Amino acid sequence: MIKEMREPTFLVLATLAEGKKHGYAIIQGVASLSEGEVALKAGTLYAMLDRLTFDGVIELAGEEIVEGRLRRYYELTPEGTTMLADESKRRVKVSNIALRRLRFVGGFA
Amino acid sequence: MTKGLERSRQLLKFYPKAYREERGEEIVTTLQEAAEARVPRASLGDQLSVAQYGLRVRLGLTSETMFGKALDIAAIPGLVMGAFLGLYLLILGDLPVVNSKFFSPNFGPFLTVGPLLYLIWILGVVVVFEWPQFRRRVAGACMTLTIVGELLAKLAHRNPNVWEIAILVSLGVPSLLAPDVYVTRRRVLPSLSVGLATFAALFLVTDSHTSPGFFNSFYWYGTYEIAHRQPYVDAVLLALFVVLWVTKRREVASAALILSSPWIIVGVAYPLSLRYLNVGVLNVVALIAWAVGMVLIVTTSRYRPRPPASIELSALNSGT
Q: What are φ and ψ of residue B154, in 5° steps?
């Protein structure tokens, strides 16, 4: 199981929170969520998918042939959903504290 | 078949057959779709990353394998071990012969360029503790500069002992090969403990003196003493390995085996390189035991196809 969630992992899981997705759709989802900041390379994506599958965070959700090409879909497992929810709450909590403090010192309108 | 598709398929040759059969078509599709989005062809970065991951899967160097996990654990402690070895060589090798008039030419006040190389490793560790995500680049830079420095010193000045430099460079290898590129944990205390243990072990093993003079320095007797007394260290390492293995901390045990690699190899290679020294039988036994351990780690880390359950699920949900 993942001990600490790094940004790219969080972005991949957040992309899959929308529903099952195939390889390139995950790359697009990560780029969109991070506003272009994180551009996953294909090799990096498959290293992550293998690790997350091994850790039981995501699983295969089927495959289809589109224009003669094999697309394999991935989705969050119940454990992955819980993990993403916990991590999201933690990030929101920390962000809220930071924003409150910034308002207090007048550094944020 | 288009040229791009052909190139994508060629990249799959980097992967082991079992992985290729299971995931190959899927990777080609992703590469093709990425290529179409980034007209006119898939970026070189995409292709290189696919080839690099293929090699990692083939060599068992992924985050899921015993080998990969052990390398992740050994990475930063390996660099710290290198920095402490450098510190030891500086204090017990170079300082005792500083300003030596007997050996000329010198590198500044020092006998060799060694202090410069050791400083690189010490600085490298400071950088890695601050920015652990750059561990791989820092290790690469330390290793490259050390090799280049040693080669140049051989031409221009007295070069540090090649065996110590070989150990130093080898200690950067786990950082270079470790699969976890997003590492953020510093593990300062365990890493420093490994470094201090190395320093203390070297001090005890080589029966070091700090009094000045070449014949008191590490450079006169150090490598010989390492090779000569290696069996004592090996016995401690073996006990440590057994305890870690029995207590189910097998990745840590494997990491210990990886970090002990350069010392065990030098214990045999150094006397082998000299006509007047015999190779210790116990050192050969240790080398064989180490080799068996490494073969086991590498063999258990080879890619195995997924369990049938996930393949059945995949077929069940097939959209064809």
A: -65, -35
Nearest to B103 by CA among B158, B153, B156, B162: B158
Q: Which of B65, B47, B302, B257 is nearest to B178 (CA)?
A: B65
Whether CATH 1.10.530.10 fits A7-104: no
Selecting from A8, A54, A65 the residue whose C-beta is nearest the C-beta of B320 gives: A65
- By the 10 Å C-beta count (0-12 exposed, 13-18 middle, 19+ buried), A103 is classed as exposed
Q: What residues pair up with A22 in beta bridges, in sequence order?
A: A73
B307: its two tokens: 């369990």
pTM: 0.81
Distance CA B87, CA B203 (A): 12
Residue-wise pLDDT for B57-96, tens only, equals: 999 899 889 999 999 999 999 999 999 999 998 888 887 7
A21 touches chain B (CB under 8 A): no
pLDDT of residue B186: 66
- How far apart CA B230 and CA B219 sit, in angstroms, is 17
DSSP state of B209: -
ipTM here: 0.85
- Substitution target in B29, B49, B73 with the highest count of A β-carbons within 10 Å is B29
Q: CA torsion sign, B108 to B110 to B114 to B115?
A: negative
- The total number of residues shown for chain A amounts to 109
Which phi and psi angles does A14 have, rounded to 5°? -65, -35
Cα separation, B169 vs B146, in Å, equals 7
Cross-chain Cβ contact B318/A64 below 8 Å: yes
Of the candidates A14, A48, A69, the residue with the CA atom closest to the CA atom of residue B34? A69
Q: Measure in Å the smallest separation between the Cα of A54 and chain B Cα atoms.
A: 7
The Cα–Cα gap between B90 and B81 comes to: 14
The amino acid sitting at A66 is: V
| Residue B91: burial class (beta carbons within 10 Å; 0-12, 13-18, 19+) | middle
